[in-house]
Amino acid sequence: MDQGPTPFAAPTDRRLALEDSFGRRFEYLRLSLTDRCNFRCSYCLPQGYRKDASLPPELSRHELRRAVAGFARLGLWKLRLTGGEPTVRSDFEAIARDLSGVEGIRRIAMTTNGYRLTERAETWREAGVHAVNVSIDTLDRENFARVTGHDRLPQIVEGVDAALDAGFDAVKVNSVLMRSLEPEGWDKLLGFIAARPVSWRFIELMRTNDNAGFHRLQATAGDAIAEKLRQGGWTPLDRATGSGPAVEYAHPGFAGRIGLIAPYSPGFCDSCNRLRLSSRGKLHLCLFGEHGVDLRDLLQEDRQQDDLVARILAALPAKPRAHRLHEGSSGSTPHLASIGG
Description:
- By secondary structure, the protein is an alpha/beta fold.
- The protein has a single domain (about 30-340), classed as Aldolase class I (TIM Barrel).
- It contains 9 helices and 12 strands.
- Helix 1 (about 60-75) packs across helix 9.
């Protein structure tokens, strides 16, 4: 039976650690709050979100808090709130406040399509969110509308500026690489980051079970971006502790940075430091793994924490060395919104 909010601390147990059989340590949880999204991105939900009545409800605030507390006991200190679009949940701000109060959690980031960012940036920062990633696949307004199903590019760019004004520790832009967008926008992008201290990250399009045809037509490697950066005098930076998979580049003439996330590159999974919890309570050891480990039954009462920690630890040895995207296998991932991308 779910209990109401109570003061809840989750001291780290130094005897335990989230480590897999390949020696990788995990300190970063991507926490999906919902698989719902109000955009219709061509590479994810081109027909829009469609409710599946067979699925259990999304995790409640209190189930989310207990889950994070269990991971925090194992040394996890960084969260990313994602979806779907996490802010379609009416209790998003309450969730952020709850999780920022869990002992051991030092950093909370979020990924959003930015549709509410202009009006809510300050509120989300005050709720305990330290960093925000905004999805902008193109700075061409017509193409943005075509890709997302919404003519909202000026509003989203305004939201990025609002996030900078709100004082987030980091503001990043996520841009999926697609063949149809290759010829456009490099000068616009450079202009965008010239005076804005944001990191614009290109992400190679990943194949899921629902987008195989689209992936075949639109996938393009990030090598050309890396070469363009090298020729333009951009310098690769060392990865910071707890950071995600992006290789970031800096240039003395720009306030912002450019990053590249290339999941198809050799050795991409070698430095994996993140796990995923779906909005229905399943622990996913890999974005493109099979099935998942159900934790929900151990999220009902605070006194279940020891059992929760034991189940998480028992799951880690099954984490594979790498995904199987090169073999055309996306595991059980229907689309990126289903687990949190």
